[in-house]
Amino acid sequence: MTQTFEHYLVPWNYPLHNASVKLAPALAGGNSVVLKPSEESSLSALRLAELCEEAGLPRGVLHVLPGYGHVTGEALGRHPDIDAIGFTGSTEIGKRFLVYAGESNMKPVWLECGGKSPHIVFDDCADLDAAADAVISGVFTNAGQVCSAHSRLLLQDGIAEEFLTLLQKKIKQLIPGHPLNPDTNLGPIVSRSQFEQVIDYLTVGKHEANLLVGGDVGTAGEGSLFVMPTIFTEVEAKHRIFQEEIFGPVLTVTRFQKDMDSVALANNSCYGLAASLWTQRLSRAHRLCDLIQAGTITVNGVDAVSPQTTFGGMKQSGIGRDYGLAGMHKYMALKTRWIHY
User: Fold this and answer.
1) Strand order from edge to edge, sheet including 274-278
2) pLDDT, tens digit, for every residue of 117-136?
């Protein structure tokens, strides 16, 4: 294919991983790349570019261009010599890149955006302890600053009380600490502005629902941007904390009775990135996987990801897929050639 320039914007929560996921298939497809890291985490991208040059990548094939999104990101999004955009970040900013493309050269825009992933536990779950560990991991890893964070827990009535008691016991083991300490299991929020956004949602949640655990801030050493793991119960689908992506260590709990109630709750969202469910009935698992609107669904586990399979969302969680062959093909222009002789 003809060499083109691809433009990638990656967020601050997993900066090296996200950059690699975008760069590898694009470079393998024969493209030159402009990588714009988040202004919160630019150093890993710059170091990656140095390592690529040391490894023999020709100069000019990979460019790293730090800067603010509303300046550098927009300029690249509107640039007529950029042939495609790969973006991981919020839905709000992803929509802007669709506008930039529409107002410039109509470049394809591949988006991996926000999420509000449901975590469904049925009353036939064979291992509530494992399910509780998965719930903790699914929403409190990286202090909840994950696009696919399973921040909506849907519990079938039969096991709801027992499961919530188990969660409260396990959540006490999450103690804030220095991010570079290997024993730390609860890190800080990335910035003051993000911290204040999470605090605002805690205030909203205290008015909308019942605060079961947390709801306050913590400290670790000299660090102050810690939000303690929080669980709200009696959350309804109409509540903001059920609908809006918080991007912090906040879990909402909603009960249901029947299978289709869980499906209705899971799909009652503008997002569709991931979902998880716990059941011993294989027929139920297959049926719900068909009905739940999410790009990746894990049964009896949480947030399973593999480079061999695709990852991406439905609805306002994005367009296109990362990983697998699909992650490479979206950075390649298909061409049909007919020769008569």
Assistant:
1) 210-213, 230-233, 250-256, 152-156, 118-121, 274-278, 296-299
2) 999 999 999 999 999 999 99
CA nearest to 116, candidates 89, 147, 91 = 147
- Global model pTM greater than 0.90: yes
Q: String of b and e for 299-325 (b: at least 16 CB within 10 Å)?
A: bbebbeeeeeebbbbebbbbbbbbbee
Query: Vertex 62, ends 59 and 66: CA angle to 5°?
Result: 120
Residues 223-253: b if buried by 16+ CB within 10 A, e if exposed:
eebbbbbbbbbebeeebebbebbbbbbbbbb
* Among the listed residues 249, 218, 251, 217, the one whose alpha carbon sits nearest the alpha carbon of residue 232: 251
d(CA 127, CA 249): 24
Sorted by where each starts, the structural domains of the chain and their CATH numbers stand as: 5-113+317-329 (3.40.605.10), 118-299 (3.40.309.10)
Residue type, 316: Q
What 3-state DSSP class applies to 209? coil
* Structure tokens belonging to residue 252: 């909402």
pLDDT digits (tens, 9 = 90+) for 199-252: 999 999 999 999 999 999 988 877 889 999 999 999 999 999 999 999 999 999
- Angle at CA of residue 131, ends 128 and 133, nearest 5°: 110
Distance separating alpha carbons of residues 312 and 330, to the nearest angstrom: 12
**Pair 323, 311: CB distance under 8 Å:** yes
Of the candidates 134, 170, 110, 125, the one whose C-alpha atom is nearest the C-alpha of residue 274 is 134
C-alpha closest to that of 12 among 145, 208, 171, 119: 145
Catalytic residues: 112, 147
Distance CA 69, CA 105 (A): 19
